[in-house]
What does this fold into?
Amino acid sequence: MQTRGERQASTRAALLRSASRLICRHGMHGASIDAIAADAGYTKGAFYANFSSKQDLFLTMLEQKFALALSDLQAAMPGAGIPADEAHSAAERFLLYATSDPEWPRLYQEFAALAARDEHFRQQLAARVAELRERMAAVFAHWAASYGVKPTFAPEEVAAMTFFMADGFLMNRLIDPGLDESLYPKMIDVFMQGLLARVEATEP
It folds into this structure.
């Protein structure tokens, strides 16, 4: 028999799954609270018992996705092997994570489109993205320190650049699904080679 906490977690998970499916099918505005609740097999009251608004649900979904992506990045870059190989592995793992859920890139673009029209949501989304990039920067700083390397770019800048590359690649995959997946790891390879070359050039 499930506890109250387990039942609530199960309800939230079902609502998030339904929201993901319906947003991809009908867009942010087309996926109403009533439709999300009904698709998940719950009432509108159950929705509001778990989320204060549809935007609250969207941001919860985003936080979960970001947390998983960050966990993958940390696992791929322990700072124990060859730097270029670890960076390449991190890129491949990210791509595998992103493509394992075909709804996620479309969801993120829906979030971005809503942010362009809704200033309050834009601020909330920007805060989550900034937090993710800050945590990515901490991973990169720890990774570089494990090799005794002092990068010529701040970890925050490296995090921003890698985030923008991933964001741009996934958006273009939506436009052209036939885009070769190997291009993203290659981009990261070239980027890392450039970073390492700059480090070597500044070493005495």
Q: What stands out?
A: The chain has a mean pLDDT of 88. The longest helix spans residues 119-146. The CA atoms of residues 28 and 110 lie 6 Å apart. The radius of gyration is 19 Å.
